[in-house]
Design brief:
Number of helices: 2
Largest sheet: 3 strands, antiparallel
Distance between the termini: 79 Å
Oligomer: single chain
Structural class: alpha+beta
Strand content: 15-25%
Strand order of the largest sheet: 1-2-3
Length: about 120
């Protein structure tokens, strides 16, 4: 008896590309929640009250085993990237921002206040 081949139709929805400049990760007993965020400033001439920020979220829910596999895959990919392009290091700008943040936190602990950069 010959095997009959079955044809399977597969529809692929590629989705939209999404640039993330911030991520938060949370979990409960059954899932990990990866919240990819894009935060960007907006200028609206109608809004005279100050800065406006636009925040978009893309949340991905992953079971614990798949999350562990994803972390492993990301580590392997990072190692290959750094082998090919060099070690990824923190930029001088980020180091400067972190120093300013620590200074502000120190001021608050001493009873001061954090400067309001956004008005």
């Amino acid at each position: 008896m010959e095997k009959q081949e079955k044809q399977i139709n597969l529809n692929i929805n590629d989705g939209d590309s999404f640039y993330s400049n911030e991520i938060s990760i949370n979990f409960n007993p059954s899932n990990f929640f990866l919240d990819f965020k894009n935060i960007s400033p907006r200028i609206d001439p109608r809004n005279q009250s100050g800065a406006t920020f636009h925040l978009k979220h893309n949340v991905v829910l992953i079971d614990p085993y798949t999350f562990k596999q994803t972390v492993s895959l990301m580590n392997e990919t990072l190692q290959r990237y750094e082998k090919e392009f060099g070690k990824i290091e923190k930029s001088k700008l980020i180091e400067k921002l972190e120093k300013q943040q620590k200074k502000s936190e120190s001021m608050v602990k001493k009873g001061g206040s954090i400067p309001a950069y956004l008005g």
